[in-house]
Amino acid sequence: MTKVSRFIYWTPRILSIIMILFLAMFSLDVFDSCNSLLTCLLALFMHNLPVIILIIVLIISWKREIVGAVSFILAGLLYIFLLLIQISKGQGGWFMLLWSIQISLPAFIIGFLFYLGWRKKKKPRLRKKQKKYKQYKSQK
């Protein structure tokens, strides 16, 4: 495995883990407003729902990079879309779009790196299929 291959393989996975930990860190604010253990656990679960979904996506995309590419790009787009809905309802200002860069840009980068890894794996398979097809055609 070349240096570029290792970089393309490991970078999106490591960045995904860092991004998931970063998002999980935001759920720690639920402990400020907890009245009981049950409400605290429920609030913690609700705050960590995106984290749980991204962990599942990361586990699946560890072997199937295209899942990670599509999922992380869609997650970034969904975050921007949800912020636009909030802004249109008057619940925030235009500056909230600048905040979206903190979440959506890393998601887009991770998705693009997963896509590069998927393309890199796909090219040798395509060459083998083309070679087999040419052999098949030459036999006829």
Structure description:
The chain has helices at residues 3-25, 37-47, 49-61, 65-88, 95-139. By secondary structure, it is mainly alpha-helical. It has one domain (3-139). Helix 1 runs antiparallel to helix 5 (95-139) and helix 3 (49-61) runs antiparallel to helix 4. The longest helix is centred in the C-terminal third of the chain and has 45 residues, at 95-139. The chain is elongated.
**Class of secondary structure makeup:** mainly alpha
List low-confidence stretches: none
Strand content: under 5%
The backbone outline, from C-alpha atoms, is elongated
The whole-angstrom Rg is 21 Å
The description of the largest β-sheet is:
none
Helix share, percent: over 70%
Terminal Cα span: 37 Å
Mean pLDDT: 87
Q: How many strand units?
A: 0
Total number of helices: 5
Topology order in helix (H) and strand (E) letters: HHHHH
SSE layout:
Blueprint: H1 3-25, H2 37-47, H3 49-61, H4 65-88, H5 95-139
Helix pairs in contact: 1-3, 1-5, 3-4, 4-5
Which features would summarize this protein structure in a list?
140 residues, mainly alpha, 5 helices, elongated
Summarize it.
The chain is 83% helix and 0% strand. By secondary structure, the protein is mainly alpha-helical. The mean pLDDT is 87.
